[in-house]
Write a structure and sequence with these properties.
The protein has 434 residues and is α+β, with helices and mostly antiparallel strands. The chain contains eleven helices and five strands; from the N terminus they run ααβββββααααααααα. The C terminus is likely disordered.
């Protein structure tokens, strides 16, 4: 029994130590849980405080913005009020000046006394003066016809019938369009026809004074390419530039295509050469992608011919597609520029209609027609460019297929010549069958 006593004592000590350790671990876990709960509560309190401060800050910013907008509105209203007050003062000043001028005129004709505070003393004289002024104005306002030597729109001197409407304006009433229009004096005192052209029926009736402007028309524009460019506006020049670039690209492509040579049975001709040097010289004489492919194959090692052929074919494909992407971009850009010019012209036409509410349907149709000229020109450039691009793309596809076929024939023939077998090898280039 005494033999097991130390073991029992040790076992009891271990059991007590384990129990104490378990109690300590439980206490630590409980304390950690308590600390985590407290930390979570503190986090929630901090988050709530942060949200509250953020809400307060947002409200403050909103109030500041509102106050700033109100201040801007107040400043705008103050400026408008100052402008109205300034305008009222200017009108009052103008009225006082006109009143002083009228009083001075009345004093000049003896209608009022010298004292500015006295009113008109002679009512009959005032009425007589006003009636004379009205009669003089009526006399000057009557239309008068006369023949005057003027310079027409083409710069030639001609004696034309002229209608004078008081002192406001003079208008030439010739039979031709270049002989009809408003007259202005130059520095030398000569009469020149300028401004819009007056219709013949309007000029013949003498009803040339049109306040609304609906009876007048713009001066005749030159015809041909110059007139087309002037009616089309600024977007005509970019479209013309696209057309020139497309023509140059097409001509470059045609010249490149004419420089290529595609001999019939190119691979067979090379295989009939007496030696490799002669075949290589013959391939170099063939300008174009096929000659480049054959030179690359013949100058490469037998185990690298496949890779070299693929690389040369890729380079030839880039050579075959040269200029096609540019033509596609130009064909797509031309109608878009035309549409942009049309939209710009339509906006300008409607703005002009808004500014001149009395514009008639003829002016509206003329403005829309001028706006559509850019779309027409864009389509004129785009359609041939698309057709040329399609033809060149088809030709490039055919050349690509031919190059691949000829390269495969040459590679197959060269592989057959260098493949070892039990049978006698086929004759090489320039050799005869025994």
């Amino acid at each position: 029994m005494s033999r097991y006593l130390p073991a029992l004592l040790l076992l009891g000590c271990l059991s007590g130590w384990a129990a104490a350790n378990e109690q300590a671990r439980t206490a630590v876990v409980a304390e950690i849980a308590l600390l985590q709960a407290q930390l979570q509560e503190q986090r929630q309190e901090i988050e709530a405080a942060r949200r509250e401060r953020l809400r307060t800050l947002q409200d403050t910013v909103h109030e500041l913005r509102t106050a700033q907008e109100e201040r801007k509105k107040a400043q705008t209203a103050q400026q408008e009020a100052a402008a109205v007050l300034q305008e009222a003062r200017a009108q009052q000043h103008q009225g006082n000046r006109e009143l002083r001028q009228l009083r001075a005129l009345f004093q000049q004709h003896g209608l009022v006394s010298g004292d500015n505070n006295q009113h008109i003393v002679d009512d009959a004289a005032l009425r007589q003066e006003l009636q004379e002024r009205l009669d003089l104005l009526t006399h000057h306002a009557r239309p008068r016809r006369s023949d005057i030597t003027v310079y027409n729109r083409s710069g030639h001197s001609a004696t034309l019938p002229v209608l004078e409407w008081g002192m406001a304006q003079r208008v030439a009433l010739g039979s031709r369009a270049q002989d009809r229009g408003f007259l202005t004096r130059d520095d030398a005192g000569a009469w020149l026809i300028q401004g819009p052209t007056i219709p013949q029926q309007t000029a013949a009736a003498g009803a040339w004074l049109d306040i609304s402007g609906r009876l007048a028309s713009e001066p005749p524009r030159p015809r041909g390419i110059r007139g087309f460019i002037e009616r089309g506006g600024p977007f005509v020049w970019p479209i013309f530039a696209i057309a020139v670039v497309a023509i140059l690209a097409a001509l470059t492509r045609v010249g490149l295509r004419l420089s290529w040579r595609r001999p019939q049975g190119a691979a067979a001709k090379l295989l009939r050469a007496p030696d490799v040097a002669e075949a290589l010289a013959q391939a170099r004489r063939w300008r174009g992608p096929i000659g480049s492919i054959f030179v690359g194959i013949l100058t490469s090692a037998p185990d690298q011919r496949q890779e070299i052929a693929g690389a040369v074919l890729a380079e030839a494909e880039v050579h075959l597609s040269r200029g096609l992407r540019l033509l596609a971009v130009l064909a797509a850009a031309a109608p878009l520029l035309g549409l942009l010019g049309t939209v710009t012209g339509m906006i300008a036409s409607f703005e002009a209609l808004g500014a001149q509410a009395g514009a008639d349907a003829e002016r509206l149709s003329a403005g829309i027609g001028q706006a559509l000229l850019t779309t027409e020109l864009g389509l004129i450039v785009a359609v041939p460019t698309l057709i040329v691009h399609a033809l060149f793309a088809r030709d490039a596809s055919r050349w690509r297929s031919r190059c691949e076929a000829e390269a495969l024939r040459l590679l197959s023939a060269l592989d057959t010549l260098h493949t070892p077998s039990s049978t006698p090898p086929p004759p090489g280039p320039g050799q005869k069958q025994p």
